[in-house]
Write a structure and sequence with these properties.
10% strand, Uracil-DNA Glycosylase, subunit E
C-alpha cells in the first residue's frame, strides 16, 4: 500500500476484477480439526449461553434466532464470513437483498466496493472477517431499529470475543454508534482514536461503502481511514 492514487485506482478497478469471486467465501473453518461444542455437548438439550458459545454453535443459534421481528421477513440469516483468526473485523449495518438471498455478508454492489477497500489494505476477503450489526435483513433496506440492534448485539459481542481482532472497522453510522455506544454523528465519530468498550481493540470509523457509491468523492477520506487501520496494525 503506497500512495492515495494507487488506493483510488484499486478502489475503482478491483471492483470489477473481483466480481467473479463474490459469494464463494464462507470461511468459518479456521480450526477444522477442533470438535465443535455441538459435537462434544454431552446432552443435546444443553444449550450454552451466547457468551459461552463457540463460532459454530453461535452461527447455528443465529440461524434459529427469533429474538426480533426481522426474523419474520428474512430469507436467510447472515452470520458473517472470513477468518476467525483475522486481525481486522469489518462491521456493516445489516444484510441487503443479495445478502439475504445468499446468506453471506457484503455480496452486492456495496460488497464489491468493500472488497476493493480490503484489497487496497493489502488483504484478501478471506484474511479478514466481515459481519453486520444485525444478522437479518431490515425490510426495504431501512436502518435497523434500536431494539433490533440491541436484540442482536449479544451475537456481535460474542463474535468480537471469539475473533479478538486488533482493529474493528465500523462501516457507517449505525455500526459506529452501536460499537462506541454513542449518539454522535458519523462525522463526529470519524477520524479519532477509540477503543471497543473496555478492551484494547481499536475502532476505526469510516463511511459505509454504499454511501461511497453514492458519493465517490468521499473515497479519498476513506483512504485516510484505511491508512489509519494499516498504521494500527503495524504497531
Ligand atoms: N450493507 C451492509 O451494511 N451489510 C451488508 O452485508 C451489505 C450491505
Ligand atoms: Fe435474531 Fe438478530 Fe435476526 Fe433479530 S436480527 S432475529 S436478533 S439474528
Amino acid at each position: 500500500m503506497a500512495t492515495g492514487d494507487e488506493f483510488l485506482t484499486a478502489m475503482g478497478i478491483e471492483v470489477w476484477k473481483l466480481r467473479d469471486r463474490q459469494g464463494e467465501i464462507d470461511l468459518d473453518k479456521a480450526e477444522p480439526n477442533k470438535p465443535s461444542q455441538a459435537e462434544i455437548a454431552p446432552e443435546k438439550n444443553q444449550v450454552p449461553a451466547i457468551e459461552e458459545m463457540d463460532a459454530q454453535v453461535l452461527k447455528a443459534a443465529v440461524a434459529a434466532c427469533q429474538r426480533c421481528q426481522l426474523s419474520k421477513t428474512r430469507t436467510n440469516t447472515v452470520f458473517g464470513a472470513g477468518s476467525l483468526e483475522a486481525d481486522v473485523l469489518f462491521i456493516g449495518e445489516g444484510p441487503g437483498r443479495e445478502e439475504d438471498l445468499q446468506g453471506l455478508p457484503f455480496v452486492g454492489r456495496a460488497g464489491k466496493l468493500l472488497t476493493a477497500m480490503i484489497t487496497a489494505l493489502g488483504f484478501d476477503r478471506n484474511q479478514v472477517y466481515i459481519t453486520n450489526v444485525v444478522k437479518c435483513r431490515p425490510p426495504n433496506n431501512r436502518d435497523p431499529l434500536t431494539d433490533e440492534a440491541s436484540a442482536c448485539s449479544r451475537y456481535l459481542r460474542r463474535q468480537i470475543e471469539i475473533i479478538k481482532p486488533k482493529v474493528i472497522v465500523a462501516l457507517g453510522r449505525v455500526s459506529a454508534q452501536l460499537l462506541l455506544d454513542s449518539e454522535v454523528s458519523l462525522g463526529g465519530l470519524r477520524g479519532r482514536p477509540q477503543k471497543y468498550r473496555d478492551t484494547d481493540i481499536d475502532v476505526v470509523v469510516t463511511y459505509h461503502p454504499a454511501y461511497l457509491l453514492r458519493k465517490p468523492t468521499e473515497k479519498r477520506k476513506s483512504w485516510d481511514d484505511l491508512w489509519k487501520v494499516r498504521l494500527l496494525l503495524s504497531q
